[in-house]
């Protein structure tokens, strides 16, 4: 390679491209720009998984990379959330004296957006996608550094394709000298509707396919932000497909709980795929928020252990991320935008069609039926036009993951007309109603039930059915249930 750095730099147009240069041990390595992230099931993806396993083993080996180093597995995991008291862990790893690395850990640990936990400041649920893109992207750069390999890219796990919905086999080899680094013993067994994950069962194989647990249907959502009673793309993806996969892989000792999730090496392939769902949505022309969303920054460590305050506007286009641009080898198809204009979704103010006969919080220990009372307001189907009817569940609370998912049905006047509505889960939902977004709004679920036959009758009940026995100590509950026209 005789090309000079100066010549190389002058030959490329954007600053983002230029910073994809790497210097290892005084030797320059030029990465093709942007790099491609591959499907883990493809041959290129398999090559990357082999590299990934070597990196994870190094990052977990304290003799190679001490825990205090931002490149360590512990430091990266803790940046998502610390599974123990943060201060005690800071002291254990860094001692009491101040140091640049300790300050970086203090700023970076426990930063996952937007899965707020009690005792933490309020978060903005619109930051779920950009924070995790940054997190995965800096992790990927750190893996390159650990491997001394500027061509490494993180593969993604596309569980939305049924043929790929079992955990990739490289993560299920406890006795393999290379791949044991990717193995975790405490993934779900075949109880409570879950699959035996380490046996290679499809994640959703013991649950009804019509629940759409692994469906990328959220791609048809036209707006990024929540609009009144309608969940936007970001919170819908967060509380739906993303959280479903967490709960289907592990319980509250593993992928099923925010503090432990990023300790499992599959976390990063899961989030690469969630990032790809977002990239697919944008590639189809769907718009991200503007304003302060774009200028928000979060602290990360670069591959040299130096603090970076990454800005959302720098990462919205994956192909122009300074120092780490990438694209996906394939994107998911996005349904055509609905004929409804955004203005039509915003204009009508929500009106309640039915609400709980007995208002108040409902514990979800087993199957519950919540009777609703009609208010006399007409349904969207009766009114016609662009309006829709939503089933809205608010104020979900739990003291931890109940380790099951909950199926939601709308039951009409005859027992023969139950409508499956969707699935709710408690991943990332803290207790005591502290899970506020920027608007002071708790995270909520809403489902479009405009065409439900159950709405024809007066006598309506919402039925919530756990997929197994909820963990009693978790005490999951739902605060309010209503049907809303908007
Ligand atoms: Cu996650």
Q: What do you see in this structure?
A:
It is a single chain. By secondary structure, the chain is α+β, with helices and mostly antiparallel strands. It is 27% helix and 17% strand. The protein contains 14 helices and 15 strands. The strands form four sheets. Strands 7, 8, 9, 10, 11, 12, 13, 14 and 15 form a nine-stranded antiparallel beta sheet that branches. A two-stranded antiparallel ribbon has the order 1-2. Strands 3-6 form a two-stranded parallel ribbon. Strand 11 and strand 12 form a beta hairpin. The protein is globular. The relative contact order is 0.14. Copper (II) ion (CU) binds next to helix 8. Copper (II) ion binds next to helix 8.
Summarize, please.
With 486 residues, the protein is of the alpha+beta class.
Percent of residues in helices: 25-40%
Give the distance, in angstroms, between the N- and C-terminal Cα atoms: 62 Å
Q: How many H/I helices?
A: 14
Q: Which ligands does the model contain, each kind named once?
A: copper (II) ion
The general outline is: globular
Low-confidence stretches: 1-32, 432-441
Cα gyration radius (Å): 23 Å
Beta-strand content bin: 15-25%
Major sheet attributes: 9 strands, antiparallel
Q: Calculate the mean pLDDT score and round it.
A: 88
Q: Summarize the helix and strand pattern as letters.
A: HHEEEHHHHHHHHHEEHEHEEEHEEEEEE
């Amino acid at each position: 390679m005789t090309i000079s750095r100066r010549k190389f730099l002058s030959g490329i147009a954007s600053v983002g491209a230029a910073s994809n240069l790497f210097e290892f041990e005084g030797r320059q390595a030029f990465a093709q720009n942007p790099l491609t992230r591959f499907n883990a099931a493809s041959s290129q993806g398999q090559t990357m998984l082999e590299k990934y396993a070597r990196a994870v083993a190094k990052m977990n080996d304290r003799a190679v990379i001490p825990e205090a180093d931002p490149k360590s597995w512990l430091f990266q995991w803790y940046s998502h959330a610390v599974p123990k008291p943060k201060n005690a862990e800071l002291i254990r790893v860094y001692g009491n004296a101040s140091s640049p690395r300790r300050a970086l850990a203090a700023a970076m640990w426990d930063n996952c957006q937007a899965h707020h936990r009690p005792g933490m400041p309020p978060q903005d649920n619109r930051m779920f996608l950009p924070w995790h893109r940054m997190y995965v992207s800096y992790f990927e750069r750190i893996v390159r550094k650990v491997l001394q390999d500027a061509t490494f890219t993180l593969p993604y796990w596309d569980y939305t394709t049924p043929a790929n919905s079992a955990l990739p086999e490289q993560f299920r080899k406890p006795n393999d000298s290379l791949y044991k680094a990717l193995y975790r013993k405490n993934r779900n067994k075949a109880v409570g509707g879950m699959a035996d994950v380490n046996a290679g069962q499809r994640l959703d194989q013991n649950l009804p396919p019509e629940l759409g647990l692994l469906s990328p249907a959220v791609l048809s959502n036209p707006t990024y932000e929540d609009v009144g009673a309608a969940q936007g793309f970001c919170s819908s993806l967060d509380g739906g497909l993303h959280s479903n996969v967490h709960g289907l892989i592990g319980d509250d000792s593993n992928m099923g709980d925010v503090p432990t999730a990023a300790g499992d090496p599959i976390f990063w392939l899961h989030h690469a795929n969630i990032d790809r769902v977002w990239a697919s949505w944008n590639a189809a022309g769907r718009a991200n928020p503007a304003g302060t969303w774009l200028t928000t920054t979060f602290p990360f460590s670069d591959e040299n252990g130096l603090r970076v305050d990454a800005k959302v506007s720098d990462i919205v286009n994956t192909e122009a991320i300074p120092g780490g641009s990438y694209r996906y080898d394939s994107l998911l198809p996005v349904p055509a935008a609905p004929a409804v204009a955004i203005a039509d979704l915003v204009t009508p103010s929500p009106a309640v069609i039915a609400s709980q006969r007995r208002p108040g919080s409902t514990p979800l220990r087993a199957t519950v039926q919540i009777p609703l009372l009609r208010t006399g307001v007409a349904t969207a189907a009766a009114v016609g036009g662009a309006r829709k009817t939503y089933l809205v569940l608010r104020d979900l609370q739990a003291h931890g993951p109940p380790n099951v998912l909950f199926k939601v049905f709308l039951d009409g006047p005859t027992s023969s007309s139950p409508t499956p509505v969707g699935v709710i889960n408690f991943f990332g939902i803290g207790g005591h109603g502290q899970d506020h977004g920027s608007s002071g709004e708790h995270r909520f679920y809403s489902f479009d039930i405009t065409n439900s036959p159950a709405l024809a009758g007066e006598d309506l009940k919402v039925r919530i059915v756990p997929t197994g026995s909820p963990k009693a100590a978790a005490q999951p509950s739902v605060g309010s249930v209503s049907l809303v026209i908007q």
